[in-house]
UniProtKB/TrEMBL annotation:
Pfam family, one: HTH_18
SMART domains associated with the record: HTH_ARAC (SM00342)
Gene3D superfamilies: Homeodomain-like (1.10.10.60), Jelly Rolls (2.60.120.10)
Protein name per its UniProtKB record: Transcriptional regulator, AraC XylS family
GO MF terms, alphabetically ordered: DNA-binding transcription factor activity; sequence-specific DNA binding
UniProt keyword annotations, A-Z: DNA-binding, Transcription, Transcription regulation
Domain HTH araC/xylS-type residue range list: 175-273
Species whose genome carries this gene: Companilactobacillus paralimentarius DSM 13238 = JCM 10415
Length: 277
């Protein structure tokens, strides 16, 4: 029933998610992070929304998502041959290894041969991540620096020279709020309580959050709950009502309603299709 495998070496290197299993269509809800994300669907398709721009990816495409770009994924079509790689380069590594990192914007190059180099780097990291031996972490560290080198060489641009640079939200204002929601979403939390955590008025928080995230604060709370409920549905045999309670929904009906709205199926039917696949 697992949709993906997380490859995370003992040392702090790249985080790699390998999507391989056949399962029903799914979504990755709108989110952001300071890491650079690189998606490489070797076999498989999906629709991405990155900084408000809709992108339909097909097998062999590479997508680069810069730090703090709000993005989501839907219409993920997978089958028994699916192989899709998601790389997350932690912010801590980026600012340590790339001088003046904050001044760069990363875009996939237009030249085929340069794109081929990036693809080769990514696939090489994936191949070595699948080998279990005493040299694995050293090899992955070497591969990581190759990826960083070629990203900087072929994909980096000075932000001041990039035409049509998407507006990146000032998410640092909401960092405490978002962290609090992530930590307490399974509890009964209210808007005024969340506002107090960020030392903001409820009005200011509501306006700023909606503008930056494209949804209300409480909608975001429920989407975080839904994300965790989805993981339980796909990876455990817990009862639907129990999952609803554990993730903070007021009742199973409100959970099922939101699940149906996002995933186009009830939680029970979704799990049933997963088990059959």
């Amino acid at each position: 029933m697992y949709r993906h495998e997380m490859v995370e070496p003992s040392q702090q290197l790249l985080k790699l998610i390998v999507h391989t299993n056949s399962f029903a269509n799914g979504n990755v809800l709108r989110h952001w992070h300071q890491a650079i994300e690189i998606d490489y669907p070797i076999e498989g398709t999906a629709d991405f929304t990155i900084s408000g721009k809709r992108i339909s990816s097909k097998s062999g495409d590479v997508l680069i998502i810069n730090s703090n770009e709000i993005h989501s994924v839907d219409n993920m079509n997978t089958n028994k041959n699916t192989l899709a790689l998601t790389f997350l380069i932690p912010y801590e590594i980026l600012i340590k290894e790339i001088p003046n990192y904050e001044s760069y914007w990363f875009v996939l190059p237009k030249k085929r041969e340069e794109v081929a180099i990036i693809k080769h780097d990514l696939y090489l990291y994936y191949q070595h991540s699948q080998i279990e031996d005493e040299y694995r972490n050293l090899q992955l560290k070497s591969d990581m620096f190759l990826i960083l080198h070629d990203l900087l060489k072929y994909c980096s641009h000075d932000k001041n020279t990039v035409h049509g640079l998407p507006r990146i939200p000032t998410l640092h204002k909401l960092a405490k709020v978002i962290d609090y929601i992530n930590q307490h979403s399974s509890e009964k939390i209210m808007l005024d309580e969340i506002a107090q955590v960020g030392h903001l008025s409820t009005g200011y928080l509501s306006r700023t959050f909606s503008k930056q995230m494209g949804m209300s604060v409480m909608e975001y709370v429920n989407y975080i709950r839904l994300k965790r409920a989805y993981e339980m549905i796909t990876n455990t045999d817990k009862n639907i009502a129990v999952i609803s309670d554990l993730t903070g929904f007021s009742n199973p009906k409100s959970f099922s309603k939101l699940f149906l709205q996002v995933y186009k199926q009830t939680p029970g039917k979704y799990r049933f299709r997963l088990k059959k696949s």
